[in-house]
Design brief:
The chain is of the alpha/beta class and 106 residues long. The protein has helices at residues 11-14, 32-41, 58-64, 84-97; strands at 5-9, 23-26, 46-50, 71-75. The longest helix has 14 residues, at 84-97.
Length: 106
């Protein structure tokens, strides 16, 4: 087992996560699906990934969307205008809390 938390993305996006003690993995497009499956198979419970890889991970996200683990969560890099990561986080929090707790529209 590699640990409970892994971060996957481009080098410039994942390096700051080293300060958290997370295992970080630098990948490029076309590599992320293989790396995420490897992490899942090795028992990693929480995997953060750069939101730019969401489309590449669609099938994996669908497969595990109803499972408690692994928790697959995109993080915003500011590089994509869709703001998928923030919208998804808002939805997860709303589901967990039972109400929209954000004061302003994201």
């Amino acid at each position: 087992m590699f640990g409970d938390l892994a971060v996957v993305g481009r080098k410039q996006n994942v390096l700051p996560f080293l300060a958290t003690g997370a295992n970080v993995y630098s990948v490029e497009k076309g590599e992320v699906g293989k790396k995420v499956l490897e992490l899942i198979n090795n028992g990693v419970r929480v995997i953060l990934f750069a939101e730019e890889f969401t489309e590449e991970l669609t099938e994996i996200l669908k497969k595990y969307q109803t499972e408690t683990f692994p928790c697959l969560m995109p993080f915003s890099t500011g590089d994509t205008p869709e703001r998928f990561a923030i919208k998804r986080l808002k939805g997860i929090i709303k589901k967990a809390v039972g109400a929209d707790i954000f004061l302003e529209e994201l």
